[in-house]
Amino acid sequence: MALFDLPLDELRAYRSESAEPEDFDTFWEKTLQEAREHDLDARFEPVETGLTTIEVYDVTFAGFGGHPVKGWLRLPAGATEPLPLVVEFLGYGGGRGLPHESLLWASTGRAHFLMDTRGQGSTWGGGGDTADPVGSAPAYPGYMTRGIDAPENYYYRRVITDGVRAVEAARSHPLTDATRTVVLGDSQGGGLSIAVGGLVPDLVAVAPNVPFLCDFPRAVTLTDRHPYREIGLFLKTHRERAAEVRRTLSYFDGVHFAARGRAPALFSAALEDQTCPPSTVFAAFNAWGHEDKTIDVYDFNDHEGGGPFHEAARVRWLRSYA
Question: Which segments constitute the Acetyl xylan esterase domain (predicted)?
């Protein structure tokens, strides 16, 4: 696919027209306050993997509504002092996989906490283990329209809250250094890292890779690809609900979380990416609230972005922060 979005010079100046709700901060303060009324109850059970350089713990903690959320904590073998902490969120449809997967960040000498995404984990990878016990009104298949009738009911209210609680759970382990916490992820995981980066004020770095969940007004009208297309197909049937849907999505738009970002950030965008169009990524990047921010651009790539090249770039970049 050739370039289909704005030219790069226009992307660097692009600003989203997404309207921020007046009660955005109140909504999220109330949401997190309600979640914290439940005991975090973070449990770390050692897992026998046969690995000699990495130790793995099967993690359970209380997320939104006190619901149990799973994860993996991976540590360099033999660690005795608190380590810089990387909290990672997953791409759409994936789960935490198997304990011997995703060894990069622990191999750099950091603690690595990988959060399972509730209700997902059956599209790619090694599977997921976290249920989403909350139902919703009629929705299009997928996750994008579950509970889209109201912000209080929306699926991503639960997932983003789980993300904040994942940071709290990871920080509760004695071998993680809470003062050196990074959040990152690819695609959906990148969008979640932006949201958590806007809600957790004391992170040292945020690294969203080709992030999803940004600039909804443009994304849902620009690309025919799923997952954004789920919203358009829902509205194709529910023609009278467009304003209601726009209102709900405004509480979850990465652009608004980005404006509250208080940590250095490394973004990435791919100019042929039709899944997360580059203008939607630049919308969040340009709104990011911390002046120390960089975006790596991959001119001829689709949603794979920089792939292993960007992994290496993130490893190099994080040396300055954690």
Answer: 1-319
